[in-house]
Amino acid sequence: MLDVSKVRSCFPILNQVLYKRPIVYFDNAATTQKPNVVINTTTEYYTKYNSNIHRGVYYLSEKMTEAYNSARLIVKKFINAKNVHEIIFTSGTTESINLVAFSFGEAFIKEGDEIVISLMEHHSNIVPWQMLCERKKAKLKVLPITFSGELDFSLLPVIITDKTKIVAITHVSNTMGTVNNIKEVIKYAHSLNIPVLIDGAQGIQHQNVNVQELDCDFYAFSGHKIYGPTGIGVLYGKEKWLEAMPPYKGGGDMIKTVTFEKTTYNELPFKFEAGTTNFIGAIGLGTALKFVEELGKENIFEYENQLSNYLLNKLLELDFVRIIGLPEKRTSIVSFLINNIHHFDVGMMLDKMDIAVRTGSHCTQPLLKFFGIDGTVRASLTFYNTFDEIDYFIESLKKIKELFS
Amino acid sequence: MKTTDEIQKEIVEEFEGFEDWIEKYNYLMELAKNLPPFDEKYRKKENLIEGCQSQVWLGAEYKDGKLYFYADSDALITKGIIALLLRIFSGQSPNDILQTEPWCIDKIGLKAHLTPTRSNGLVSMIKQIKMYALAYKTKYNL
Questions:
Q1: CA A170 from centroid of its chain's CA atoms
Q2: Buried (b) or exposed (e) across A247-258, using 16+ Cβ within 10 A?
Q3: How much is the ipTM here?
Q4: Is A226 found in the same domain as A93?
């Protein structure tokens, strides 16, 4: 079992009083707070070992390179990748998806080909593919969803066809919290020999991710959403695809030899890591993943599940609340609206009550259009949140409802 | 006619009486509700200032050397701040509008609403008010 008060003591920001009480941080889908170990490791590496990786023959550089390499190994183990060189460090999920959209696109997409995404994608998993489609005169096809906020599997054979060259689907909806049955999507796409990219921005921190078991071809996620530093992320890709894809950016470290006539590219993963990477960010991410593993993924997910059910049931009791998306399987993200009160007003009020939530479209405008709305209030919880915080949140919503009536 | 500075001083005085943010926000909501109904002829695409979170409509009319503004928003707190901005800017001459900064918003503790990242459309609204003033100043050679 998770000792929540002990967990909370690892996150210094959670004790900070903003207006009147310690912050109730319910915006974890936007970014998560950082535990002391991550903050300290980052400081330690800047303080004691700062030097560039892969270049120096001296002590500091070797020490830094070693730490960077072990961070990659931690990521590999965390998602159970087959090979360590299948782990590419990027700046985050957005860059990971852009990398695939560009490089996979260069190698495999031709005029008339089709790319499949779903209606519930974050703009980061829409726009890179649109750009690719424009560049290659390919076509973007969208898998519809049901009103409960789940992928419409009955339409899978209609949308994914022999013209499809790649499928890009989110693991977990950043707006509704839906956990998609990605295994089923992958299985179906693979039956037609189509590779699948999973946007794991909201999946990696709340679900067990085993890329070999899932058999996904790409899995993208961000460090800052799993208690790591900002500006670091991961692209997992199967070796066979990564080998076949051209580099995405040119620069140092991604080359073997350079003459003005021809450049030979370096091996994986360096082929995709041009220039000086965010190596201290990567080390911080490694520390964050170790932190999660020490607490135990099972313990974390079980507690988050309890939180999620509690919050959902409390919200369902309020007759003035409309929940957007009621999928069968979900994480601790809930989007809702309060009758007659603009989501922006609700967010402003909650802020003054020391509650941080996200309001607006959550970068999923097509999804909101489907529900006929232009924004929601989104509460996204994680394992350092508590039942008491949920109670306070619900009381605050009741108070806001009163203030507006 | 009061100057924009005089109006802003009045606003600051009104807000001085409030003990906490609930009273402040309540007052803003009251101002929003008391704003005369928005003339629907102004609710058109050209007058829409899109924020990421809340939308603002802004129409303008020029009469006898003064500019009159009409505005609305789908979010109530935003609309309350709009009411304050209209009180300051509406009915002033283009020259006065161009020389006015809404400093009172900072004084009454609502500065956060006017930062560009807040995306509630208010920063764009002020910019648009000044654009109108500049346009009429140029048109009528004021």
A1: 9
A2: bbeeeebbbeee
A3: 0.84
A4: yes
Chain A residues inside the 8 Å CB shell of B74: 342
Contact A341 B76 (CB under 8 A): yes
In the block, tokens 């931690």 appear at A74
| A32: in domain | no
Q: Do B53 and A360 touch (CB under 8 A)?
A: yes
**How many domains would you assign to chain A?**
2
Q: pLDDT tens-digit profile of A162-209?
A: 999 999 999 999 999 999 999 999 999 999 999 999 999 999 999 999
Alpha-carbon span A253 to A77, nearest angstrom? 24
Tell me the one-letter amino acid at A86: E
- The CA–CA distances, whole Å, from A198 to A119, A124, A192, A230, A247 equal 14, 12, 17, 20, 20
Q: Is the residue at A308 inside a domain?
A: yes
Task: Specify the higher pLDDT residue, B74 or A89.
Answer: A89
CA distance A344 to chain B (A): 6
pLDDT confidence tier of residue B121, bands split at 50, 70 and 90: confident
Same-domain pairing of A17 and A50: no
What average pLDDT is seen over chain B? Answer: 90
| Structural domain boundaries in chain B | 4-139
Task: Report the gap between the CA of A31 and the closest CA in chain B (Å).
Answer: 17
- Cβ contact A360–B25 (<8 Å): no
What would the CATH number be for the domain defined by B4-139? Answer: 3.90.1010.10
Residues A287 and A304 in one domain: no
Token code pair at residue A136: 């290659």
**pTM score:** 0.93
Query: Does B114 touch chain A if contact means CB atoms closer than 8 Å?
Result: no
Q: Which chain A residues contact residue B53 at CB under 8 A?
A: 343-344, 347, 359-360, 375
Residues of B in contact with A375 (CB under 8 A): 53
The CATH number of whichever domain residue A14 belongs to comes to: 3.90.1150.10
Cα nearest neighbour of A360 on chain B: B53
Nearest Cα residue in chain B from A358 = B53
Q: Which residue range(s) make up the domain with A303?
A: 4-26+296-404
Distance to chain A for B64, nearest Cα, Å: 37
CA A63 from chain centre, in angstroms, equals 30
User: Can you tell me the mean pLDDT for B50-65?
Assistant: 87
